[in-house]
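User: Can you help me understand a structure? I only have the sequence.
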Amino acid sequence: MVSFRELRDKYQIPRVKKIKLGWWGRYILNPPSVVIAQLLMPFRITPNQITVVWLLMGLAGGILFSFGDYWKSIIAALIFQLTIVFDGVDGLIARYKKLSSPSGEYFESVTHTLVHDIFIVVGITFGAYNQTGNILMFALGFSMVISLLLHKFLFLEKIHLFVKNKLFSKVKKTQKKIKIHKSHLTLLKKIYDSTFFLYVGISLINFVTIAAIFKRLDILLWFYGLTFPIIIAALLFFEIYRGYGWVSELFK
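Assistant: Let's start by predicting it. Here is the structure, written out as tokens:
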């Protein structure tokens, strides 16, 4: 059986450093990923099968959140924490068994969107409504889920246009735009980099967990539903003016 240290040092830590999970992800959630992957290695389990597992876990967590019941919400929050753990498991198995593939990465990316953008927000929206009876929870939840999806769309659409319109030769021209608005863009980028971690991934799930513990899913929705659109609007402005230089780096 492959050792814990080999899996961690060779197949996990380089990836963790690259995607910057923070101390909670690196020291609390990732060690269990290594242990589970180590236990599953002898079996004929594929990365996609693990991805299906945490996809179903996310769906179950969203359903549990929707009731608005305290203990169901606590269980749901723990389930979403576990989705991060199993997200690490499928990657470890894929890298160790050399089963990584474009289709597998695509499936995992779609699963991320479903679980961490849609299932969790829809669940806490219905849960907050059932806790408070305030119909505004649906508007705030809609604002939050649309903002999460727009965040991905703004980046993916730029990559799509870069490839579709063959902009390799035009990159230098678009980069000149950055100099015109350099001070403004630098400020926007600093604001984005220093605050956006609050809105996605592990940080979002941690805040959802805290809200579930204190039975205040409504406050969570008020915060994200009102502030997230502002962040997305700033990001849109930033992407319009900074050109395609960063996209070209992806294709080198």
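Now, to help you interpret it: The radius of gyration is 20 Å. Confidence is low (pLDDT under 50) at residues 174-181. Let me know which part you'd like to focus on.
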